[in-house]
Amino acid sequence: xxxxxxxxxxxxxxxxxxxxxxxxxxxxxxxxxxxxxxxxxxxxxxxxxxxxxxxxxxxxxxxxxxxxxxxxxxxxxxxxxxxxxxxx
Length: 88
Prior knowledge:
By secondary structure, the protein is mainly β. The chain has a single domain (about 1-85), classed as Thrombin, subunit H, CATH 2.40.10. The protein is built from one helix and six strands; from the N terminus they run ββαββββ. The chain has one helix at about 30-35; strands at about 1-10, 15-25, 40-45, 50-60, 65-70, 85.
């Protein structure tokens, strides 16, 4: 299953690159998003060296099916708007 990186989790003047917000096509409610908590996500970098950054879905975000993800390390800016893969 694929998801799209929407933004970093942020405050008024700061942004946390280790926590991001994802939208998942087909997930339209908070109840559906809660079922995905605990699953692993993987972002793969473009280019010759395929580096991977993994994370875990930690909580739903809002009422429209978005989720929060806690990553092992910071996600680069080129990942915003890109796809990640959701694993079991």
